[in-house]
Amino acid sequence: MFNQLSNRLSAALREIRGKGRLTESDVDDALIEIRAALIEADVALSVVREFAKTIKTRAVRAEISTALNPGQQFIRIVHEELVKILGLNTRTLRFTSGSPTVIMLLGLQGVGKTTLAGKLALWAKLQQRTPLLVAADLQRPNAVDQLKVIASQAEVAIYAPEPGNGIGNPVAVAKDALKYAAGRNDVIIIDTAGRLAIDDELIKQAVEIKKVVNPAETLLVIDSMIGQDSINIATAFNESVGFDAVVLTKLDGDARGGAALSLVSTTEKPIMFASTGEKLTDFDYFHPDRMASRILDQGDVLTLIEQAERTLDSQQTTKLAESIKSGDGFTLEDFLEQLQAVKKMGNLSSMFSMLPGAGKMKNQLADLDDNQLKRTEAIIQSMTPAERVNPEILNGSRRARIAAGSGTSVMEINTVVKRFSEAQQMLKRGIIPGIGAIPGAPKSTAKKNKPGKGARRSGNPAKRAQQG
Predict the structure, then answer these.
(1) pTM for the predicted model, two decimal places
(2) Is the pLDDT of residue 435 over 80?
(3) Which of 182, 251, 354, 381 might form a disulfide with 304, Cβ 3.0–4.6 angstroms?
(4) Average pLDDT, the chain
(5) In this structure, what CATH number is given to the domain that contains residue 190?
(6) Is there a contact between 154 and 121 (Cβ–Cβ < 8 Å)?
């Protein structure tokens, strides 16, 4: 998400970044591009005007004119104002003390509300809670069955006594779910019915459910790809039912980003959660400061680290760091282990887009494909242990055997080996491909003696000397 907006803003700020002196004309030129980028991203015009006005006011004041690096100071101001319109602070979930925390989900049909209910339940489970999904969407065909499948995938409890398809009383289901959860669950997530548009029946039903369950949090689920329409939807729900915060879905889609950049300012409601992929684990708190950094192509390393910490155990993380820093001990065997670890973290393109300067690597990132990762994994798994340790022994017949075993081509084998060799050489020089220098990595680029055929090189210099 935000790719187009990020590219436009980065281009606008690139001209101003290194300037040692900024005139009012420079600021005006940059703001013309910034306004155009935001309008193109379908951000509400009122938000764009206020955003540009605030930046102009701050930029012509002393904080720019007296700065040692005015260009960087201007970018800092843009970042700070982006954080403000995205909500300023991270809004966290309010858990009820002494009784189950009831969370009610609102939203139109097709926004991904039922799937999001499962994601929220799994998220609560990972917070050491005992969630219960409640199937109160009895209007949409198969909504109850869909929630049952999702609950099974997330391995969480579900209360679904009614079959759905327009049969049953959703208010009674929600009320009975509270009794069912007593002594069993400390978080109750109620999936309510959606419609293709706001209508009186939907509103009346939602009001009645809210009155019965008295939720600690009422969350409005919004499709991030619908742009300014999200404002009208949020306003209608807020005036009729009321809600506490927004959850954005499909943030991984090719959306223009208008919803995220317009909702907070126009509705005065925070964005609490964001769904960023198809997997149930692609869900977490929405952090305004991190999102602003991603929009300005400054990366989101904190989220990337958190994803790694949730996915990789400490032993894997330590081994990855040591393999990268040593370079000499990094083989295709290590590479395979890291590929398998990275697969658990989610979509590759989304993950690498969190790196600072990812926008400058958009051509390389476009080549990042999860299916390609699977093919690479199959290729390495079709190699013998000796071939993984020393790919230099891969002659024509070996490569043909690996291609047949992995269901790929010899050309793909050659590509994997070539890219691994290039990455290995960069790691030896203390550089992560596409990122830069590794902190603490050895700077020496002196050539080491190669080990014997089929032997794994040791990361210990003394042992390598003995092997040579």
Answers:
(1) 0.70
(2) no
(3) 354
(4) 81
(5) 3.40.50.300
(6) yes
Averaged pLDDT, 341-346: 64
Residues listed for the chain: 468
Helix (H) or strand (E) holding 376: helix 370-381
Both 52 and 146 in a single domain? no
**Which residues make Cβ contacts (< 8 Å) with residue 436, sequence separation at least 6?**
none
| Cβ contacts of 318 within 8 Å, gap of 6 or more | none
- Co-location of 119 and 24 in the same domain: no
Indicate if 403 and 362 belong to the same structural domain.
Answer: yes
**pLDDT tens, position by position, 196-248:** 888 888 899 999 999 999 999 999 999 988 878 889 999 999 999 999 999 99
DSSP state letter for 283: E
**DSSP collapsed to 3 states, 313-346:** CHHHHHHHHHHHHHCCCCCHHHHHHHHHHHHCCC
CA-closest candidate to residue 135, choices 121, 114, 110: 114
User: Rounded CA gap, 209 and 216, in Å?
Assistant: 13
Q: What is the CATH classification number for the domain harbouring 72?
A: 1.20.120.140
Q: How many domains does the chain have?
A: 3
